[in-house]
């Protein structure tokens, strides 16, 4: 196989991988996972594959390096993703001591209300400064995506 084909395969696989990460992050985690930290690894992979294709893959470290660069973003996503998805966080609100019987589900146009910005912690690695937000029985709740701590808000955010 020609080295230029490797570059196009890697570029296509990188774009596909990014689209899959975006889909999973937006549907399961409602954008709580910070993909901005994975994109530099993906860009470096594309640049390295372009460099190796210019050398016609003569370097014996080319293919192992590209395999490693493919696994780094995947492993980072697997190990640092939020502990709870949006649906699991909703279940935590139901199971909490706050005795909630009904949670309002927002349609696609108002989906931005599913998370709220939070700036109370020193740092969050790979998770943006957002918590899951729920409205139920006239009360409002926040759920931390990593720890699952349910907190009742005194007033609505939105």
What does this protein look like?
The chain has two domains: 3-80; 86-153, no CATH class. It is 44% helix and 12% strand. It is built from four helices and four strands; from the N terminus they run ααααββββ. It has helices at residues 3-27, 39-54, 62-80, 86-95, and strands at 115-117, 130-136, 139-143, 150-153. Strand 3 (139-143) and strand 4 form a beta hairpin. Helix 1 (3-27) packs antiparallel against helix 2 and helix 2 runs antiparallel to helix 3. The chain is elongated and about 65 Å long. The N and C termini lie far apart (55 Å). The chain crosses the membrane at residues 7-26, 32-52, 64-80. Keywords: Membrane, Transmembrane, Transmembrane helix.
Runs with pLDDT <50, length 5+?
A: none
Number of helices: 4
* Biggest sheet overview: 4 strands, antiparallel
Task: Tell me the Rg in angstroms.
Answer: 20 Å
Proportion of beta-strand residues? 5-15%
The average pLDDT is 86
Strand tally, please? 4
User: What shape does the CA trace take?
Assistant: elongated
Specify the helix fraction band. 40-55%
Strand order in the largest sheet: 1-2-3-4
Q: By helix and strand content, what is the structural category?
A: alpha+beta
Features:
158 residues, 44% helix
């Amino acid at each position: 196989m020609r080295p230029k084909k490797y570059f196009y395969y890697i570029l296509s696989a990188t774009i596909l991988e990014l689209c899959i990460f975006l889909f999973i992050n937006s549907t399961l985690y409602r954008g709580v996972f910070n993909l901005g930290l994975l994109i530099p690894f993906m860009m470096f992979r594309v640049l390295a594959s372009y460099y190796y294709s210019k050398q016609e893959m003569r370097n014996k470290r080319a293919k192992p390096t590209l395999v490693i660069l493919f696994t780094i973003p995947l492993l980072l996503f697997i190990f640092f993703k939020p502990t709870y998805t949006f649906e699991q966080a909703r279940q935590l609100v139901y199971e909490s001591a706050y005795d909630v019987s009904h949670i309002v589900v927002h349609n696609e146009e108002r989906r931005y209300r599913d998370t709220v910005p939070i700036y109370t912690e020193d740092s969050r690695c790979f998770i943006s400064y957002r918590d899951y937000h729920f409205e139920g029985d006239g009360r409002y709740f926040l759920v931390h995506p990593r720890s699952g701590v349910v907190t009742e808000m005194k007033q609505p955010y939105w």
